[in-house]
Structures are given as structure tokens and as C-alpha cells.
Design goal:
The protein has two domains: about 5-90, Multidrug-efflux Transporter Regulator, Chain: A, Domain 2 (Orthogonal Bundle); about 95-149, no CATH class. It contains six helices and three strands. It has helices spanning about 10-15, 20-25, 45-60, 65-75, 80-125, 140-149; strands at about 5, 35, 40-45. The longest helix is centred in the last third of the chain and has 42 residues, at about 80-125.
């Protein structure tokens, strides 16, 4: 039978984050929906954990806590805030796509340098990459490398 209530330790394990992360989110006002027992212990439902995953996702996109707090407030408003939440996620999508483009450029450079050194090591010299003893910039090499992939 599926467990319906979770402790903070259970929630952290399900999310693969330290309990301190969840406590931090709570301290920052991101979890106004989480119930507490009389003892003060937080109790999480499956819906709470799904919301925590979204909050963690937003944090990983680089969204500031202040904006995540606004998202949490919108959640509390229910259907009245659907448009705002939609627009917020469209903006997050644009930001993540830009990050991915930048990361792809970084990966292309790293891949190029791996190829560069692998071929230089196999040849026993970096001179294999220089024709007519001219040193061409890494940018030109990178452009040539990218055109081959």
C-alpha cells in the first residue's frame, strides 16, 4: 500500500536532496501549504512532494527565491493565477533554452580540445594542427571541428 504522508527525511530521500534544502525552502516561505504535527514536525503529502519538485526545478533554473515565493503564492491562489504561472514557465523555458545553447557551445569547445589533444598525442606533436608553421587561432580550429560534427 502506498504511503500517503511523508516526513521531511522521506521527502528529502524521494527528491534526492538533503533535508536542509527542504528546511531552507520552508524558512524562505516557499512551503506555506505544508502541514505540521502538534510536535512541529512537517508532514508532506504526495501533492506536496510534487510541488517541492517543481520548486527545486525552478531553483535549478536559477530562479531567485523571491520569484519562487511568488510562484508559491500563486499556487495558493488556485485557478485565479493560472495565467501568471503559465507566463512564468514560458519565461523559465526561454531562460533554460538560452542556458542550454550556452552550455552546448561550452561542450563543443571541450569536445574540440579533446579531439585536438588526442590527435596531437597520437602524432606526438601539436604541429599536426598547424599548416605551413602558421599558428591559427583556436577559434578557427573550433569552427573547422564543428563543421565536421
Amino acid at each position: 500500500m502506498e504511503k500517503e504522508k511523508y516526513t521531511i527525511k522521506d521527502a528529502a530521500k524521494l527528491m534526492d536532496v538533503p533535508t536542509s534544502t527542504i528546511r531552507y525552502y520552508d524558512k524562505e516561505g516557499l512551503l506555506p501549504f505544508v502541514e505540521r504535527m502538534e510536535s512541529g514536525y512537517r508532514i508532506f503529502t504526495e501533492k506536496d512532494i510534487a510541488t517541492l519538485r517543481i520548486i527545486d526545478c525552478l531553483k535549478k533554473t536559477g530562479m531567485p527565491i523571491k520569484e519562487i515565493r511568488q510562484f508559491s503564492d500563486w499556487l495558493e491562489q488556485g485557478d485565479a493565477s493560472l495565467q501568471q504561472r503559465y507566463e512564468m514557465f514560458l519565461e523559465r523555458k526561454r531562460i533554460v533554452e538560452k542556458q542550454m545553447t550556452e552550455l552546448q557551445k561550452i561542450l563543443d569547445t571541450v569536445n574540440y580540445k579533446c579531439w585536438y589533444y588526442e590527435t596531437a598525442i597520437a602524432a606526438g606533436t601539436e604541429k599536426i594542427h598547424h599548416s605551413n608553421e602558421e599558428k591559427v587561432s583556436d577559434n578557427l580550429y573550433l569552427e573547422n571541428y564543428q563543421s565536421k560534427i
